[in-house]
Amino acid sequence: MEKDFRTERDSVGELSVQSDAYYGIQTLRAKENFEITGTKISLPFVRNVVLIKKAAAIVNENHGLLAHDKAEAIIAACDEILHHKHRKDFIVDAVQGGAGTSANMNVNEVIANLAIERLGGTKGDYTVVSPNDDVNMEQSTNDVIPTAGKLTVLSLSRELLSELKQLESALSQKAKEFDGILKMGRTQLQDAVPMRLGQAFRAFATAIGRSRGRIAASLLEMRTINMGATAIGTAINAREEYFAHITEELSRLSGEELVRAEDLFDGTQNVDCFAAVSGALKALAVNLSKMSNDLRLMSSGPRTGLGEITLPAKQNGSSIMPGKINPVIPEVVNQVAFLVIGHDVTVTMAAEAGQLELNAFEPVIFYQLFESLRALTGAVRTLTDNCIVGITANRERCAEWVNRSVGIVTALNPYIGYLKAAEIAKESLKTGEPIKSIVLREGLMDEKKLDEVLDPLVLTEPCKGRLGK
User: Fold this and answer.
1) Are residues 298 and 330 in the same domain?
2) Which of 36, 109, 262, 350 shows the greatest Cβ crowding within 10 Å of its Cβ?
3) Are both 211 and 350 inside the same structural domain?
4) For residue 251, is it within any domain?
5) Which residue intervals of 178-235 are DSSP H helices?
6) Is the pLDDT at 466 greater than 60, yes or no?
């Protein structure tokens, strides 16, 4: 079936646009120019651009800057989109030239054409409602796009922070569950000194809690916006009534506590705030990946590895080896960490590369940052639900490694000296005779004192019962 087309014109020329499309000529040009990633602009991001358009229309109508009928039609069009309609009309690629102008105009045109129909007009007749003069009234891409980016980061982060809280809680629960299990601590993959399995999981929980706090702190900068700055920070074309009220109205609609940047030039040209959020996400990725490495090592085997813990069996591990189970959940978390760390490099380079009064590279910053937030949220959720809560401890295996290790000899240094302790360690490794047996045989300590020094609680608690304390 052939499609009908309408002809639209702009300052570059004219194009045929599908008659049923709510986007217009500027959106279509962007689609043709930027077939880059195959991923369209993020729908949460679109929603926040639309929210800005609605706030602007409300303020502009309240202060007599926009005719009532146009404002009413624009607001109704925004509400349709906010209720998840017309998704197919947001067609521009997530990565685009022009500092996000294409994304802004895609939203402007869809809203304009919806409003035109409400007023009885025909799509593409921008004499009824103009995407530039009416929908974009008092605004610029250069204040709309970064503000929408900040609102999107805030909304996507909310779910991530919730999932991190659940992960921290699950790890803390495992720390309590495993607190009485003695295991061998290792440094540089070599036997070190004994510890409790619960202490390993407590350290995981502490690291996740710190990451959660670091992300929350970085998000504070997302609440400072440059709405009203328009092109570069001079607020050109923004009238006083709009300038004074747009941040307040957007705060009301979004439910976020927003403030206008004190320096609108800084707020328009510098995007280091996004680099700060990305850096906090990278630090989380590092912690998640290190934890996943540890879980894979501690669960390795199960017969020929460390085998200290057992991860939940989630799926077959091989198409050829029967019965093999792989640590697929930590593996996918590792991969998400690699992704996020790479995205942080992109965000850093894009933030640095802005020139003079505007950073043109916000589209790629948002593309990578939004993906990092979504991927981390999914990774944390699956790590909690499909791995951490189902981990079991292999108490006997942990005890076996402690008993076979000479690492406990470190606790004897204050009593018999480092050199003598090293001699005993070498002898034990060579002969297989236990450390305790060698010490008693050589008369270096009496058995009661030796039992006190090598008591598991003393060995694993800072300063507990040591050196006469």
Assistant:
1) yes
2) 109
3) yes
4) no
5) 197-219
6) no
Q: Are residues 340 and 418 in the same domain?
A: no
> Could you tell me the two tokens for 193?
């000194």
Do 238 and 138 meet the contact criterion of CB atoms below 8 Å apart?
A: yes
Pairing of strands 309-310, 259-260: unpaired
State the helix-helix crossing angle for 68-82 and 101-118, rounded to 10 degrees. Answer: 110
Distance CA 205, CA 461 (A): 18
In a domain, 334, yes or no: yes
Q: Is 299 a catalytic residue?
A: no
454 in a domain, yes or no? yes
- The span from the CA of 151 to the CA of 258, in Å, is 9
98-112, 214-228, 335-349, 423-437: least confidently modelled range: 423-437
Q: For residue 181, what are the domain limits?
A: 147-223+271-355+369-396
Dig out the tokens for 95 from the structure.
């990565």
Residue type, 285: A
From the CB of residue 319, how many other CB atoms can be counted at a distance below 10 Å?
Answer: 6
pLDDT of residue 108: 98
Do both 164 and 27 map to the same domain? no
21 shares its domain with 161: no
pLDDT digits (tens, 9 = 90+) for 184-201: 999 999 988 899 999 999
- The whole-angstrom distance between residue 70's C-alpha and the CA centroid of its chain comes to 39
The reported pTM is 0.92
Question: Rounded to an integer, what distance in angstroms lies between the CA atom of residue 99 and that of residue 347?
Answer: 14
What six digits make up the tokens of 279?
């850096």
* DSSP reduced 3-state for 51: helix
Residue in 292, 318, 372, 405 annotated catalytic: 318
- The reply to whether 56 and 153 lie within a common domain is no
